[in-house]
Amino acid sequence: MMFSIVMVDENGRKNEIMVGLKANNGLNEKTLWERRELLRSQPNVHFIEPEQFCALAVSCRKISRADEGAAGLKGLHSEVEDQFYYVEEERLDQYREGAFCPNASLEFV
Fold this sequence. Notes:
Elements: E1 2-8, E2 14-20, H1 32-40, E3 45-47, H2 50-57, E4 63-65, E5 73-78, E6 83-88, H3 89-97
Parallel strand pairs: 3-6
Antiparallel strand pairs: 1-2, 4-5, 5-6
């Protein structure tokens, strides 16, 4: 929802400023799953495992936080590559608590 505010300066010129809630990348009115799927469809977005997320977070790369709270995701943005890396909050919480089990394909035998 957007609102406009009209301000008049000392010379009598009107300046209109748009304020309000942004559409948040088209995520409003969508379920958590739909929000995640919308992000997955973007070419510069990667969903990664919790251990990869933690490794990136402490790496020497030029990275900043890029959480998507409305989608339940913790995120990182690699400024040099313009790539976004996300992990589901619930999987990251399980990983932190030691209850995370990686995919069978990643296990050592």
